[in-house]
Amino acid sequence: MKTIICTLCFLCATAVAFSQSAGVLSSDAQPLAIDGHAQHASEHAMAQESSLLSTSSYSYAKGEVPLAELGSLEYQTPLGDVARAYRKERADNVFPKAVKVLEK
Question: Using CA atoms, how far apart are residues 22 and 25, in angstroms rounded to an integer?
Fold first, then answer.
């Protein structure tokens, strides 16, 4: 078993050494060449205006909305108050404890 592991490690180390010394890419710096584009931006007439709204007319209004018209937010009990109430119920033994029954 030891010989198989040693042979495998030796083969892997040899493969890594050969892969690092392979001359696939040259290490010489080469300048970056960017191809030119035949099309470029130019000045021309703009297209006819078109509405993004389908067939509805656009309307807007100015002013303030009374707070009563916006409705009220739903009151949510803070989590700390819920935890205190739960702890108080547990301390007061509001919930009956389970009875253990041993059967032989």
Answer: 8
End-to-end CA distance of the chain: 56
**What string of pLDDT tens digits covers the 104 residues of the chain?**
889 998 988 888 888 777 776 666 667 788 888 777 777 777 888 888 887 766 666 677 788 887 777 777 788 999 999 999 988 888 777 566 677 877 87
Inter-residue contact 87 to 93 (CB < 8 Å): no
The SS3 call for residue 10 is helix
How many angstroms separate the Cα of 36 from the Cα of each of 33, 39, 70, 83?
9, 9, 59, 69
**Whole-structure pTM value:** 0.25
CB neighbour list of residue 99: distance below 8 Å, 6 or more residues apart: none
Phi, psi dihedral angles at 18 (to 5 degrees)? -70, -35
Report how far residue 77's alpha carbon sits from residue 86's, in angstroms, rounded to the nearest whole number: 13
| Nearest CA among 83, 86, 82 for reference residue 95 | 86
